[in-house]
Specification:
The chain has 400 residues and is α/β, with parallel strands linked by helices. 42% of the residues lie in helices and 18% in strands. It contains twelve helices and 13 strands. A six-stranded mixed β-sheet has the order 7-6-1-2-3-8, with helices on both faces. The chain is globular. The site of 5'-O-[(R)-(carboxyoxy)(hydroxy)phosphoryl]adenosine (KG4) has 20 residues, from helix 7 and helix 8.
Length: 400
């Protein structure tokens, strides 16, 4: 089975083409092509993601990225020109017009470059249908529906957070676009999903079963990184910027400024999180710094303490959940899972406290948003749907 996967939930436009073979639970994937076009630099000027700009960029990029992927996969040469009669063609064109009612730029490119082609090699179109930014999600969803319509294929809608979860299991070596076998997952799994919009601890007792045992009550971990970075004028996205400042603190051996931030809810009995108070604590700590303290040492010191605080809470709750639920597997996913301190600390703690459990971390290049994770999640836990039955769901939850 060959799958074309599309991800447009936020500020990355990504397309993947994979071939799947072997057993259902440990399939072998061959990655023909995987491309992630990041809009980060464009949004950085505005200090965060601007939904309408993201929508415009997704519209501009989807057709060329898909054609490029088909070419790289050697499928473009095997495309045929459509041989439908004029009446059917007209009907399809009208349906396309309805699908792309709100994406006129994409409609015109699609009609010109994709509509005339028939495809032999793709069996299903997987697409992120939520959660995410509604205008951004709709571009991908409508593109998938249109492809499915003109090529007469099913669509597999996929939850973005499931994608992040399954990305943890993609072995390191895949970024050279080779083949890999999906590992055997030992249940139960405790997954820590930490992105710009979500922070949740998920219990998976088997494939297809996801229980959110804890989540943030206010800001997501990534959002806290972004907001604190903005306070310190470090730009967007904040996660990598804060991590770099924290590293500076260590590398330059800046003397500690005795900044102490809270570890919100670290001792609460539940598995929920809260990061908005931490952000406010940073604001007050910055305000209360003695005037003579130089900004060049405040920023790295604050970044380090903030990163320590977030990581302390994430690691502590994940370990406690893993122990309580007897997790044989601990998986981490989402943009924040690229954070080196988080990866290092979790590796140490799992080794120390749960030596018989296995920790899966995504390759850093697959921690952020990408279509490969959507393709893989679609294979392991997707359902084929008729294209007219799906839509974007900005608040889609993992557990429904
Ligand atoms: O999963 P993702 O790429 O997009 C969403 O689904 O939201 O996550 C993006 C988030 C941003 O908030 C970004 O600041 C954060 O991940 N992030 C990091 C790091 N790299 C990205 N946070 C901490 N440390 C990092 N190295
Ligand atoms: Zn994401």
């Amino acid at each position: 089975m060959k799958i074309l996967a599309i991800e447009t939930s936020c500020d990355e436009t990504s397309v993947a083409i994979v071939e799947v073979s072997g057993s259902r639970r440990q399939p072998t994937f061959h990655v023909y092509e995987h491309v992630v076009a990041s809009q980060v630099q464009m949004h950085a000027k505005f200090g965060g993601v601007v939904p309408n700009l993201a929508k415009r960029e997704h519209q501009r990029l989807l057709v060329p990225l898909t054609l490029r992927a088909l070419k790289k996969a050697g499928m473009y040469e095997r495309l045929k020109l459509k041989t439908q009669n004029a009446k059917v063609q007209l009907k399809t064109q009208n349906l396309l017009q309805t699908i792309f009612e709100r994406e006129p730029e994409l409609l015109s490119e699609f009609k010109k470059k994709i509509f005339p082609l028939d495809i032999l090699d793709i069996d299903a179109i997987a697409v992120t249908n939520g959660p995410g930014l509604a205008p951004a999600l709709w571009v991908g969803v409508n593109f998938a529906r249109a492809l499915a319509l003109v090529w007469n294929k099913p669509v597999i809608p996929m939850n973005h957070m499931k994608g992040h979860l399954y990305a943890a299991f993609i072995p390191e070596a895949v970024h050279n676009l080779a083949s890999f076998q999906f590992p055997r997952i030992q249940f139960p799994v405790i997954a820590l999903l930490v992105s710009g919009g979500h922070t949740e601890l998920v219990l998976m007792k088997k494939f297809g079963s996801y229980a959110i045992i804890g989540e943030t009550l206010d800001d997501a971990a990534g959002e806290a990184f972004d907001k604190v970075a903005r306070m310190m004028k470090l730009g967007y996205p904040g996660g990598p910027a804060i991590a770099a400042e924290a590293r500076k603190f260590q590398d330059l051996k800046i003397k500690s400024l005795n900044i102490k931030l809270p570890r919100p809810m670290i001792n609460s009995k539940d598995y929920n999180f809260s990061f908005s108070g931490l952000k406010t604590a940073v604001l007050y700590a910055l305000r209360d710094m003695p005037k003579r303290t130089r900004m060049t040492s405040i920023v790295p010191a604050m970044a380090k303490e903030f990163q320590d605080a977030v990581v302390d809470v994430l690691v502590s709750k994940t370990m406690r959940a893993a122990k309580e639920y007897g997790a044989k597997t601990i998986a981490v996913g989402g943009g924040v899972s690229a954070n080196h301190l988080l990866r290092e600390r979790l590796s140490q703690e799992v080794k120390k406290q749960l030596p018989n459990s296995k920790l899966f971390l995504p390759h850093v290049s697959l921690a952020g948003d990408n279509a490969l994770m959507i393709a893989i999640a679609a294979v392991l836990d997707g359902k084929k749907k008729a294209p007219n039955t799906i839509g974007a769901e900005a608040n889609l939850r993992l557990d429904n």
